[in-house]
Amino acid sequence: MLFRHLKDSLDLLVEELAVFENAKHITLGEPVLNQIVSIGNKKVRYYWDYVGETLSWKSFKSVKPDKNYLSKEIFPFPHQPSYIKTLFYKKYFKEYCGYVEKKI
Questions:
Q1: Which residue range forms the structural domain that includes residue 42?
Q2: Tens digits of residue pLDDT in 24-41
Q3: How many domains does the chain have?
Q4: Are 67 and 16 in contact (CB under 8 A)?
């Protein structure tokens, strides 16, 4: 369903994001991440350095501008229900936020 509207939506989103040149860009959930990542992993947990169970090696990542259709650095976050239900995201939420904050 989202894919049908991707082209028109991306054009508008790129235009709107141009106004906020120095802003951080986050995604909430994998449905959106799946639509904007052009090359590379499309799982939120990959960018949070998931290694299994509830563990992360804490080598956090972002989606680089050359790997997505927005041409901006993007920081993937889980959708709110996943954050509440998944111990992994609860456990590393503050640390990932710290990583994002340092990327100013």
A1: 2-102
A2: 999 999 998 999 999 999
A3: 1
A4: no
